Amino acid sequence: MKTFNAEEVAKHTSPDSCWVVLYGHVYDVTDFLSSHPGGSKVILQLAGRDATEEYDPIHPPGTLEDNLKPEAKLGKIDPQTLANPAKPAAKEEKKDEVDPPLESLLNLDEIEELATKKMSRRAWAYYYSSADDTWSKSNNNLVYRNIILRPRVFVDCTACDSSTALIGTKVGLPLFVAPAAMARLGHPDGEQGIARAASKFGALQIISNNASMTPEQIVSDAKPGQMFGWQLYVQNDRAKSEAMLVRINKMADKFKLICLTLDAPVPGKRELDEKSSFINAAPVAAATKTGDESSRPGGGGVGQQLFWGTAADLTWKATLPWLAKHTDLPIVLKGIQTHEDAYLAAQYAPQVKAIILSNHGGRALDTAPPAIHTLLEIRKYCPEVLNKIEVWVDGGIKRGTDIVKALCLGAKAVGIGRAALFGLGAGGQAGVERVFEILKAEMETCMKLLGAKDISALGPQHINARMVERDIYDGAAGLDKMGLWTKSKL
Amino acid sequence: MKTFNAEEVAKHTSPDSCWVVLYGHVYDVTDFLSSHPGGSKVILQLAGRDATEEYDPIHPPGTLEDNLKPEAKLGKIDPQTLANPAKPAAKEEKKDEVDPPLESLLNLDEIEELATKKMSRRAWAYYYSSADDTWSKSNNNLVYRNIILRPRVFVDCTACDSSTALIGTKVGLPLFVAPAAMARLGHPDGEQGIARAASKFGALQIISNNASMTPEQIVSDAKPGQMFGWQLYVQNDRAKSEAMLVRINKMADKFKLICLTLDAPVPGKRELDEKSSFINAAPVAAATKTGDESSRPGGGGVGQQLFWGTAADLTWKATLPWLAKHTDLPIVLKGIQTHEDAYLAAQYAPQVKAIILSNHGGRALDTAPPAIHTLLEIRKYCPEVLNKIEVWVDGGIKRGTDIVKALCLGAKAVGIGRAALFGLGAGGQAGVERVFEILKAEMETCMKLLGAKDISALGPQHINARMVERDIYDGAAGLDKMGLWTKSKL
Amino acid sequence: MKTFNAEEVAKHTSPDSCWVVLYGHVYDVTDFLSSHPGGSKVILQLAGRDATEEYDPIHPPGTLEDNLKPEAKLGKIDPQTLANPAKPAAKEEKKDEVDPPLESLLNLDEIEELATKKMSRRAWAYYYSSADDTWSKSNNNLVYRNIILRPRVFVDCTACDSSTALIGTKVGLPLFVAPAAMARLGHPDGEQGIARAASKFGALQIISNNASMTPEQIVSDAKPGQMFGWQLYVQNDRAKSEAMLVRINKMADKFKLICLTLDAPVPGKRELDEKSSFINAAPVAAATKTGDESSRPGGGGVGQQLFWGTAADLTWKATLPWLAKHTDLPIVLKGIQTHEDAYLAAQYAPQVKAIILSNHGGRALDTAPPAIHTLLEIRKYCPEVLNKIEVWVDGGIKRGTDIVKALCLGAKAVGIGRAALFGLGAGGQAGVERVFEILKAEMETCMKLLGAKDISALGPQHINARMVERDIYDGAAGLDKMGLWTKSKL
Amino acid sequence: MKTFNAEEVAKHTSPDSCWVVLYGHVYDVTDFLSSHPGGSKVILQLAGRDATEEYDPIHPPGTLEDNLKPEAKLGKIDPQTLANPAKPAAKEEKKDEVDPPLESLLNLDEIEELATKKMSRRAWAYYYSSADDTWSKSNNNLVYRNIILRPRVFVDCTACDSSTALIGTKVGLPLFVAPAAMARLGHPDGEQGIARAASKFGALQIISNNASMTPEQIVSDAKPGQMFGWQLYVQNDRAKSEAMLVRINKMADKFKLICLTLDAPVPGKRELDEKSSFINAAPVAAATKTGDESSRPGGGGVGQQLFWGTAADLTWKATLPWLAKHTDLPIVLKGIQTHEDAYLAAQYAPQVKAIILSNHGGRALDTAPPAIHTLLEIRKYCPEVLNKIEVWVDGGIKRGTDIVKALCLGAKAVGIGRAALFGLGAGGQAGVERVFEILKAEMETCMKLLGAKDISALGPQHINARMVERDIYDGAAGLDKMGLWTKSKL
Lengths: 490, 490, 490, 490
Fold this sequence. Notes:
The structure is a homotetramer.
Chain A: E1 3-4, H1 6-9, E2 13-14, E3 17-22, E4 25-28, H2 40-46, H3 52-55, H4 63-67, E5 73-77, H5 87-95, H6 108-118, H7 121-128, H8 135-145, E6 148-149, E7 164-166, E8 169-171, E9 175-177, H9 190-201, E10 205-207, H10 215-218, E11 228-232, H11 238-249, E12 255-261, H12 271-280, H13 291-294, H14 301-307, H15 316-326, E13 331-336, H16 339-347, E14 352-357, H17 371-381, H18 385-388, E15 390-394, H19 400-408, E16 413-416, H20 418-450, E17 463-464, H21 466-469
Parallel strand pairs in A: 1-5, 9-16, 10-11, 11-12, 12-13, 13-14, 14-15, 15-16
Antiparallel strand pairs in A: 2-3, 3-4, 4-5, 6-17, 7-8
Domain FMN hydroxy acid dehydrogenase (chains A, B, C, D): 100-468
Protein name (chains A, B, C, D): L-lactate dehydrogenase (cytochrome)
Subcellular location (chains A, B, C, D): Mitochondrion intermembrane space
């Protein structure tokens, strides 16, 4: 195999001839430019140099092999000829500050604070960002503050059991890790670190379609009975999705559900993420832009790149039958935001076993409702849904009391997304464990102070949600009365 | 033609003899002092020197010819005798800072921020200012934050069409440029720059009665099918208004409507604008004030100057018939703020084809209701209005989601005022294009995430406006029940 | 008359022998110590030195003569022996800053800001302070922000007349000066300066019982038809009050009403005022305190001193008949804060001609309701009151729109207290005129933009008070239903 | 008795041999490590040195004797060999600042501010801290701000009597000191200082189960008729609780009630307290941790230490009968937070004579309801409770108006916790007296301004609680209607 020096590689930086160095090898990616899910611009910014550091944390193993022809691998790079990157020095300097021990971090805000210090700006911006003016992200949490707890006294709560079962599988906690992409951006432990942490608490982990490790890697040392789910973003190229389902179906002892994400048929506008990419990006000649790319406002950002190729044409009638052909696993629909869609989902039981009320962590559409709104809508307009399928929620969880409040309203499980990633950023697997430890302790303290011995004892009598209830959708009493439109057909 | 030197001109600075230099010529404006719409004080502050820089951006071509007798033009100025103004140096210094590229500005706030840096203090104060304590201006935007979106899932929204038709004319967007005065204050491209930007998006532009360019100039290179409106402030001297209508009627291929502004029969109190004028103004001897002027609190400001001569005696019965005599163009009434007036306007269809719910960008009466309040009032008390005439809104638009929310409630079009001016200030025509680009992209992302393929698919089922609804006027249920007054007659 | 030197006077600083210098004379005030309305401590702090500067601005002429026996005046002070006070230097230094011209101050906040700079800390603290945590003071204004105006269009409002009549007397404005004590603390023009300013606008002035000038002085150059009222704090020593009524009755051509203040039977806790007195006070030996005084928490402050001697035992049955014996002037009851008391007051028509809804500018009881609440209560529970007597309001007025909103709800007049005093502090009589000028202009601009030609045209249809209405007392629907108490008897 | 030197003591710092110096003596506490209520870690941090300063303020006399065998007392310490602690110097330096006189502190916030300066960080953190995000603590106070007072006029309120009776015993004030632990942490006067201050105002004091002095000490110089209560946290080792009851029963002339605390069966998460302990703690080898301790998140804090040994298995059926066997004193149940439990408590009259609506000062469960919510719930759903037993409240009291508002809603007494402790911290017994003085003066001023002569005159007609009422639990109208759960059985 031929060996190149860096000088030679550095000449290939145009759409006509674009080389990059990855893991010590030189690749000619010219032909791949137009089909890169993140757009050609992202590659051209890295052209002619060693892109391993940027490439590695966001691509699972096998990506190069899946996407490039064998002849694209031109040879080796002579490592002596690569300039020493200046960054590591800065990083070492930062490491002089000793991190506080994880056990001294008392809540999720403190973990996020440490993660913010330790992670790269790019990773932080990708995890932290949300759509437009972050109204939905903020409100996801605020809505829990506005629900008042109602502690009962003279109840023996010496023992308190927070285990439960989700769509028939026993779990240690009603808390699950929601699918979130690119865990290795935050820490080398990546999705597998989350899996190992989850196993200690018996918690379900739903693995992102855009994970930075393969599903096989992530579940490789799972404990017996450990529960996983696989998130599916249906691709325009359905064959790709079908191939993934084949892989997941083979691990049906571990993967107990397919989570079909519906709340982001197109990417939201996450300005912090876009800004971060814009700032870092070396300017690329306008000539290299395709018409398609130039229409994207801003710099794209990690979030937008991940969406390329995702199908926006899913429908109740076409997508669920297609899915039934390719997997027997139970389906969980993620991103339900109205009682109308919850009602519809329940018609698809038993193929659909659960729905996740979610506004995508506020990352898709700003001013979309928090999950608690949708849950209250369901209670008000179609409570029977809660009997037909399981209703899970995510978004805005910061405290054990938040989890308990959702459970009191009928949710069977509550997901965390950023919290797990920030735990990872703060301390790898141990940081994720600290997140679980804090939430489990807070949740059980809350249950005891409410006078509830186990999950099944929790009910709406334990909360006062009146401040929230008066804000939920009131189609029947309000705008619907105007006679200008007919109620959307269920 | 005689040539004067600056020293001689500088002697004429009193109400008895007042000269100014404009575009290289010397004018005797003594006789015109008392009839200047902005009051004599404004001219006297500039007397005896070259006033071109101050005069130019707020007067369209032809103003001198229309208002001064030929003999008032005394001759040329010897440019050698004019002192070099000190300002340009400062300006160059400022230009050392390189502006960020427009494509790096991700939202309207960032565009406003750049415009604020680049524009003169006076222009900024005029655009930015609003009445009293800016409650209405702030609330115009805030009210949109309090409307929650209701995304539907499993809808194929691969394609999304945001074109529509306004009073029968097809437009590329439901977004129009509301009439706003003095665009050249912000950038030399002026109203024509806005027109060229609008043409790229097929958007309607309503040209201000106080534009700093003539309507003929503004539409001079319009594309075929490009839609314009002309804003009319009826003048006390009706003949002036009639003359303008004659000019507009001649361009009926481009001007598809006359927009009669009603929400500002007298100027609001825009303190920032007044303050800016007060600070810059050289002190003028009290003796030069007329009784009328001295009664104006504060320094007047650009806004107050523009209002001089505007009629405050318009009525349903007199004004609309007068207008019918002078134009066949459809009438759009701007500044409707109650359902009662919306109901009345609908009685004047088909002469009146649309109304614009507006509180003049919060610039007229502080604590006047946001357009969304009035729209909700209409839906509640007289929804039939929405069938008889088109209802448009303006004020407070910052995001594509804001536009979509107004459309969901029945608005046919949504106007932007300051956003276009700040776009102009940030980058001339290209800045305005960036504003359109951002809003169109945000609007279409929102529609897709709601599951709406086109404008007609949007309806009140897509929003939860309950937080706003409970604040709207409730005459019937509340104060009206007291029996102390009878309902205002519709 | 004997002449003393300062050294000798300085020896008399104890409760056994207490001398002070006032206006160049030496007084022995030992016997008066125990009967000083402000307590002996205040005098002892000034004992042995020239107290003129502290004494003068808070005592009207004649106070010495009324309270001291002739022999208490011991003789003259030798002015050479008095140390030059150090303060004037500091004052001059401050005067190097040129005050902005009054006409450049655009609103009441800017006037207050200037007054705050110019006035003594003690005067400012007395005017500015309010009870406890200032909730009522803040809310007095905030409640107006939460009322939305409803402008009507197509109304000819070229002319706009803001004159009106109050209990039968024509006034130029529905705006009156509420009784506020100690105007000379703020500016030497004092209450007479306010009177002269009011005369320019035809406005009613109600003179405080604790004015720093005599009523005769204040009205001495009133214009024909200028309307005054006299505020009465009934004294424990009724004879004192009766004597004052004799003096006022003699000036019945000017004084058109007696304003009986009811909302402060005991002084509120104005911490800023108390703090200011505490800080300035020289420490006084504990031995000099009487039991009574030592029970007063804090330092007392100007406000508490003024209250000494005020009767707390007024009743409907005893006080009004007593008043009828001593004056024929119409009675205005100030400080009504519930609809129940408004209802009761109306039973005492025609002796009682008006009530002023007031919480004493937030200075009496914190979290007392703003006048607008009480006005809405009256409209809801006993609207007939508005027909039987006039209802005036005060508290929190900052804008012309505030005035208009109160009028729309049925108030006949709106009072300002601090605003007049801060106007005085900012520029003496001219400052008060500027306050009137601003409010009148704002009020008329508001009326025109609402489409109201005169005061009588204003009604509740011009406002949306829903945000406030939902917070007003709802005895019948809420707590009253509990059956634990019977409705307070009207 | 043997004398040790410090060097020798310093060798015993492990779980195998742990010595400490207390009050000049050396103790071998190795055997006691595992049974220390605060966990072994706390002792190990102090091992091998003089721990008197840390030990003394949180342990009442007799603790050593009760818990250690006689042979654990090894001998005396040679004081010469103890290093001089460095801290005192820093303390003296601080004392250079002269404290403001207590009479210059005008309200509870100013007293807290001074106490915060004077107290140790650890004491402050223990007193100040509350659960999670301090929502409940903040809202405890805020809820009073949202209740509006309704002053009546023309009421003779010259005299005003604020005395009352609690469960049959006459007290000088409706204000009591709620049980709060560890008063000597804040000031050496400790709980006895509070008792002496309370006696001056005839106020009830409920002594904490975790007091830093013995009950005998605290009441040792009580005045005749002075009323005390004893707080009971039932211990897992019931014999300990029974022994305490024997002691209390003997002082039945002073102790008029047993206050059984129910709102904290397990400790809340007080992060400030935990953080403070974590920061101060010397690192302890992980090997010394027991499994039980290592599961506690964070450092524990004073609050968590105090809870060890407290029973979490109390029930209506078992606990009250057990209590009846061991005392004849009336029972007051503290920590009722729902109307359901208030209703249940009333069934246990006359053994139960009163309940205290409390969320433990926001220290147990964050987002638990303020007492005022529960009081309003009782008025709404089971007002008869107010006739059967007395209802007291605590939490959030900052002003005399707060007290009056609670009384107007039917509370018979109002407790302060932190306020008394901060008074103690600010000035020992005199500081607590200042707290009583301020609140009593504020309360009586409020009563007079409302027109209430005594406590019995206060009623719901004096307040407008509508802003709070709309937020209280509305089971019947809201979530309860959903049919998904049956109302919790009373």
